[in-house]
Amino acid sequence: MPKSGSFIRTSTALAAAAAVAALSAGGAAGAPAKSSGGALQGAGSSLVAPALAIWGPLYSEARGVTVNYSSVGSGAGIAAITARTVDFGASDAPLTPDQTTACKDCVQIPWALTATVPVFNVPGVKDIQLRLDGPTLANIFLGKITTWDAPAIKKLNAGLSLPSTKITVVHRSDGSGDSYVFTDYLSKVSPAWKKQVGSATSVDWPTGIGGKGNSGVAAAVASTPGSIGYVSDAYVLQNHLAKARLKNASGRYTLPSIKSIGEAASLVKSVPADMNVSITNPPKAASRKLRDAWPLSTFTYIIVPHTTAKAKEIKNFVSWALTHGQPPIRKYVFAPMPLVMVKAANKALAKVHS
Amino acid sequence: MSTVDATGETARRPLTGRRVHVGDLLLQGVAGVAAAAATLLVVLIAYKVVDGARPAIEQFGAGFVGHVGWDPVKKSFGGASFLYGTAVTSAFALLLAGPLAMGVALFLTELAPSGIRAPVTALVETLAAIPSVVIGLWGILVLGPVLRTDVMPFLHDTLGFIPLFGPTSTGSSLFTAIVVLTIMVLPIVSSISRELFLGVPDELKDGALALGTTRWEMVRGVMFPYARGGVAAALILGLGRAVGEAIAVTQVVGGFVGTPVNLFSPGDTLASRIAAEYQGAASNLQVASLIYLGLILLVFSLLVNLLAQWIVRRAARRSGLAGARA
To answer: Digits of tens for pLDDT over chain A (354 positions)?
Structure first.
C-alpha cells in the first residue's frame, strides 16, 4: 500500500479502509460483485480503461465506493452486462439492435469522449508529416491504392518524398470500438466503402492483415515498413507511433487533441433517445473556432440496466464521472463532454432505479 | 469405453487370488465415475456447441463448411477459410516439428555429453511453459520481421517454383503461424520422445552394438521401432496443440479470410477466429457462426484423433514385431 499515507491524510478512516479493500480487490477481474455494499463491478471497452484506472482510486477516495473494472473489450463488456454478471458494461460502439434486445431494458449513457487515429510506418516520413483525406484513406483500406508514391497520396503531400514501398493495411482482427469508429468514418466519406464493406465493430476487410487488440495493431505497424493502421489515441502516446494528419470537412489537416476532439463533439446539437450519436466526419464548421474538429472522434458509453439493485451507487458514480471525473483523464486525451451530452446523460441516468 | 477398460483391467489382473477386496471395488467405482464424468462432459460440450450453433446451422446449413467468406456487416458467414488455415498450419507445423523433435530427443538421450544433457533438457522443457500469448507477441515483434526480410524472400528465390512459396507480403502470415506452432509443438513431442528413448532397454541397445552395428544403425533398427507407437502418440498430442492453439496464432496469422496457396500471405484458423471475434461479436448470427466454427473444430479434432489412433495401433503392431525380432 504505497499510498495509504496520503489516503489517511485526505479522507476519513472509513474511506481509507475502503481504499485498501479496493487495492486488494483490484486484481480480481470479472468476478461479480453481488451486494457487497460500497463496490461497483464493471467490464468492457479497453479504450475507456485508462479513464477507469484513474477514476477508481479517485472515486474511492472521494466517496468511499470501490469501482473495479476489467478491460475485456467492448463486446465482452456488453455480454457481461447482458448476463448481469457485472454492475455495468462499457462499450465504444453503441449497442446494435440485436444487443439491445438481448440486454433487456438496458440504457447506454455516454460518459467519455475520445478518438481513434491512423498510424503509419513509412520509411523517411516522420510523425504528423503524412497528410491524408477521407477518400484516400478509404481507397487505401479498400486496396485500391497500393503504394506510398501513388498519385493520390502524392497530391496531398507535396514536398514530402514518398517511397515506392508497398502499402500494408493493418486492421483489428477482434471486434472493437476503434474499428467501429474507423469504418463509420470511412462509410461517411466513401460511397464505395459504404457499399462494399459498411460499418461495424468487425467487418469483412477487403485487404491487409489483422492484429489482435490495439497492441496487436501497434506491434504490426511498428514492425512492418510501409504499413498503416489505426489505434486509440491514448495508445499512441504509450507506443510512440507516427500519427497521420487527416483532412476534415472544413478542409483543415488536423490531429487528435483535447481541443480538436472537443470541437467535433461541440457540433452535436441534439441527442436522440437512444443516445446513439456519431460524431465522425463532423460537418464543415460555421465558425473559425471549430474548424480543427478531428474526424475520428467518438463518445464511449456505460451500459446499465434500467432496473438494478445498485441504482444509487451507479447514479452517483456516473454523475461524478461526468463532472469531477472529466478533468483528471485529460492527459489520456479524453476531451470534456459537451454540455448537451451531459444533460442527456443525466436525464437517462435519472430513469435508472432499483 | 473407458469404463469397460477399467473393468477389464481389474478382471484381468486381480490383486490377490479371486477374492473381491473393498479396495478393488472402490478403485473400480472411482475410476468408473471419473471415466463416466469425462465422457459426460464431452457429450455436454458437444450438445452445448451444437445448440449454440443452431441459428447458424439453420441459416447456412452444411454449406457453411465449404463457403469462403466472413462478412459480419452483411451477416454472411462461412468456415472454409478457417478450416483450410487450421489444416495447413497444423500439418506443416507437425511436419517441421516432428523431425526436429526426434533430433532433439536423440541428441539428449544418445549423443549429448552427459554434462549438458540436464541443462538442455530443462531448457527445452521450459519452452513448453512459455505462455502462448508471450510467444505470439514475440512472433509479431521479433520473428515476423526476420521471416519477412530474410527467410521468406530466400525461400521464394530458391523454391519459388512451388506455389507454396509465393511472393512475400508481411510478417503476419500462415508461414509465421506455422513457425510459431512448430516452436510450441516441439517441446511436447521432444520431451515425450526423450522419455520413450530412455525407456529402450539397454540390453537391446548393447546387443545391437555388440553385433557390430553403428550407432545410427542401432538407432534406426532398435530405438525407432521400439518407440514408434509412443512417438506417434506424442505427435498426436503435438497436433492437438497445433490445431487448438488460438491466441499465439491470432497474433501472427494476419486474420485474412480466404484460402491462399501461398504460405507467405495472411490467413486465419478456426481457433484463432473464435478467439479474436467471440468477445466482440455484434450479432446473434455472428456468435452462432463462431460457435459453428467451434463445432467444425470439434469434429475436425475428433477425425484427426481417430486417424491418429489408427496410425498408433498400426505402428504399435509393427513395433511389437520389430521388438520380437531384435
So the answer is: 343 433 333 333 333 333 333 333 333 333 343 334 478 999 988 888 889 999 999 999 888 899 999 888 787 888 889 989 899 999 988 888 888 888 888 999 999 998 999 999 999 999 999 999 999 999 999 999 999 999 999 999 998 999 999 999 999 988 888 899 999 999 999 999 999 999 988 899 999 999 888 888 998 898 889 999 999 887 787 778 999 999 999 999 999 999 999 999 988 888 888 888 889 998 888 888 888 999 999 999 999 999 998 899 999 999 999 999 999 999 888 999 988 999 999 999 998 988
Domain topology for A116-259: D-Maltodextrin-Binding Protein; domain 2 (3.40.190)
Q: What percent of chain B has a predicted confidence (pLDDT) above 70? A: 90
Q: Which residues of B touch A72 (CB under 8 A)?
A: 279
Name the E strands within B92-247: none
Does B319 contact A at CB distance below 8 Å? no
Asked whether the beta carbons of A232 and A47 are under 8 A apart, the reply is yes
- Please tell me the distance from the alpha carbon of residue B256 to that of residue B325, in angstroms, as a whole number: 52
At B1-36, the pLDDT tens digits run: 444 444 444 455 555 556 678 888 999 999 999 999
Q: Find the CB nearest A216 among B73, B140, B170.
A: B140
Run of H or E including A239: helix A233-239
- Inspect the interface and report whether the beta carbons of A74 and B280 lie closer than 8 Å: yes
Report DSSP state, residue B219. Answer: I
Q: What is the CATH number of the domain that holds B299?
A: 1.10.3720.10
The number of domains in chain B is 1
Classify domain A6-114+299-349 by CATH architecture.
Answer: 3-Layer(aba) Sandwich (3.40)
Q: CB A174 to CB B276 under 8 A? A: yes
Count the neighbouring beta carbons within 10 Å of the beta carbon of residue B87: 15
Q: How far is A167 from chain B (nearest CA, A)?
A: 10
Q: Three-state SS for A335?
A: strand
The CA distance from A124 to A283, in Å, is 33
Question: Which set of grid coordinates corresponds to residue A182?
Answer: 474507423
On the CB side of B268, how many CA atoms lie within 13 Å of its CA? Answer: 30
Ranges of each domain in chain A: 6-114+299-349, 116-259
Place of cell 476489467: A70
B281 touches chain A (CB under 8 A): yes
- Nearest CB to B72 within list A173, A203, A224: A203
- Smallest CA–CA distance, residue B247 to chain A, in Å, is 9
- Min Cα distance B240 → chain A (Å) is 23
Q: What is the mean pLDDT of each run of 10 residues along chain B (326 residues)?
A: 46 57 90 94 93 93 91 90 95 94 92 88 89 90 90 90 85 93 93 91 90 89 86 88 91 89 92 86 86 94 84 70 43
Q: How far is residue A64's CA from residue B66's CA, in Å, rounded to a whole number?
A: 57
Q: B170 vs A222: CB contact, 8 Å cut-off?
A: no
For A91, the 3-state DSSP assignment is strand
In this prediction the pTM is 0.79
Whether residue B227 lies inside any domain: the answer is: yes
Q: Give residues 53 to 92 of B whose Cβ lies within 8 Å of A.
A: 69-74
Distance from CA of A209 to the nearest CA of B (A): 4
